[in-house]
Amino acid sequence: MSTSNPDDAPSGVLTRVAPRLRRLIAPNPSAFTFTGTCGYIVGEGDVAIVDPGPDNDSHLAAWVDAVAGERLAYIVVTHTHRDHSALAGRLRVATGAPIVGARPHVPRPGSPVGLDSSHDLAYAPDAVMAEGDRIDFGGAALTAIATPGHAANHLAFVLEGENALFSGDHVMAWSTSVVAPPDGSMSDYMASLEKLRARDEEIYWPGHGGPVRDPRRYVRGLIGHRRQREASILTRLEAGPTTIPEIVARVYSGVDPRLHGAAGLSTLAHLDDLVTRGLVTRDDGPPLVVAYRRV
Question: Does the pTM exceed 0.90?
Answer without folding.
Answer: yes
